[in-house]
Amino acid sequence: MTTHENWDEFNGSRTESPDHSESLSPSKRKKTSPSVPNKKSKQETPINTEETNEDIARQYKKFTNAPKYDYNSEELFCVCRKPDLGEMMVACDGCEEWFHFGCMKVNPNYSDLIASYYCKFCVWKGLGESKWKRKCRLENCYKPIAPGSKYCSKEHGLKFMRNVWSDLRRGETPPSSQELSTGLVKAVLEYVSDDYTKLERLGSHFPELKVVEEYKKDPNSINDFPDDVKEELQNLKQESNKLVEEIKKQEKLMETLVATKEHIKYLNENLTGAIFSDSKQENQTSKKKKSNKSKKKIDLCYCSKSDSFLIKEIADSDDLFADLLKTIKKRYSEEEDDEDDDDEEDNDWFMENLCIKDKKKCVRHNGWWNLYYDEAVTKLAQLKVKTDELSVKKESTLRNYSMKVYES
Fold first, then answer.
1. Minimal CA–CA distance to 27: which of 102, 128, 132, 125?
2. What is the reported pLDDT for 42?
3. C-alpha pair distances (Å), 131 with each of 12, 84, 113
4. Where along the chain is composition biased (Polar residues) (predicted)?
5. Is 100 strand, coil or helix?
6. Is residue 384 included in any domain, yes or no?
7. Is 268 within 8 Å of 260 (Cβ atoms)?
8. 153 pLDDT above the threshold of 50
9. 269-306 pLDDT, tens per residue?
């Protein structure tokens, strides 16, 4: 029978094998050769033994150094480095290598219960963990459950309940994770009467304990919980508060970056108007020159060395803008000659903090705004994912506590 330990009801998968009595691994994809009978499929799956990191490291070194093909140019698979002779095989989602079920200690009966599979080498390298689909509750059925059900099909659900009722009538304990009695079944039937809709709704919502309901209304009311549950809820609340502060910082950073982009546009337009409008007045005699000048515009880099955004200060201060205008005017002045090239690097920085090099010429800071903004968006998304994970952990803690109370 399946166990419900380590079952994640929120994402529909689990990291532990469907049956603790056997050592199993998932196989989302399987490969068989119908022309050759499977001689090992009738053998019992060996019990998994704990392997140390050193053991796996030695096996991995041997595995990677082994040949990929035999003398007949047949492709070799698995840690045993044998060709496909008809045994059930599973492909690793991490390294995409094929492994025999027997070599990986996988029970072939559970081949349909795979969500994803990572071999022991990929697990050892931290590339991922195998995930299982939940098994149908009917004994000896190894199919995954259907969406919104505990059974693979309606027929198996009915068969399971018939078996439970039959066992109860004979006074036997039904093969279920829940304890049922004839009195309980009778109470349910009397409650629903002839109302099928009432029967359908029965059990659709988890019956929350009063202490849990009060906690959800007021997160500070945790005194009625046991010490271990109280400590876990407090730790989750502290982590949640830290994430909330981090999210606020990232949102503030994104707002600042958006405002910075507007300030950049404002400064470029004002610098362009101040510099090239003067040049046009001084060069009225040449229409061609005037046409060329009118096409010029200022487009500076504005990347800051520090986290403080100097751009806003310049946009808000007439004095700082005048200093910047003076520096840029000098650069674009027609009287400036090539002898000043030695000071060009010094003129690329304003107040030793802000890069004022031409944007197209500044390779070092190319695309800096997009990079900062994308990083902020990515980090904000990661923080929100962590927040959702904490919410799931909190719900799981409350649910486990309620189930513990009910079962006691």
1. 132
2. 39
3. 9, 25, 9
4. 33-50
5. strand
6. no
7. no
8. yes
9. 999 888 877 554 455 545 554 444 446 788 999 998 87
Give the residue ranges of DSSP H helices in 83-127.
Answer: 120-124
Whether the CB-CB separation of 22 and 46 falls below 8 Å is answered with: no
Same domain, yes or no, for 76 and 163? no
| Helix H or strand E encompassing 391 | helix 368-407
Question: Is the domain of 56 the same as that of 87?
Answer: yes
Q: Considering only CA atoms, which of 167, 194, 199, 197 is closest in space to residue 180? A: 167
Rounded to two decimals, what is the model's pTM?
0.52
pLDDT at site 206: 77
Counting residues of the chain whose pLDDT is more than 90, the rounded percentage is 28
pLDDT at 267 over 80: yes
Q: Length of the chain, please?
A: 408
- Specify the number of domains making up the chain: 3
Alpha carbons 402 and 127: distance in angstroms, whole number:
34
- Which domain, by its residues, includes 335? 238-371
> Using an 8 Å Cβ cutoff, are 180 and 164 in contact?
yes
Query: Is the Cβ–Cβ distance between 321 and 269 less than 8 Å?
Result: no
Are 139 and 173 a contacting pair, CB within 8 Å?
no
CB 110 within 8 A of CB 39: no
Same domain, 178 and 266: no
Nearest by Cα to 144 from 155, 132, 154:
132
What is the C-alpha to C-alpha distance for residues 370 and 229, in angstroms, rounded to an integer?
Answer: 44
Q: Indicate whether 131 and 197 sit together in one domain.
A: no
Q: What integer is the mean pLDDT of 330-344?
A: 56
Same domain, 204 and 318: no
Report which residue type is found at 347. Answer: N
Indicate the burial class of 27 (C-beta count within 10 angstroms; 0-12, 13-18, 19 or more): buried
Residue 330 CA to residue 317 CA, distance in Å, equals 20
Give the helix/strand (H/E) hosting 116. Answer: strand 114-116
So what's the pLDDT on residue 180?
61
Residue recorded with tokens 């080498």: 121
Which is more confidently placed, 164 or 288?
164
Residues 6+ apart with CB under 8 A from 133: 12, 13, 112, 113, 114, 115, 144, 145
Tell me the backbone φ, ψ of residue 114, rounded to 5 degrees: -95, 130
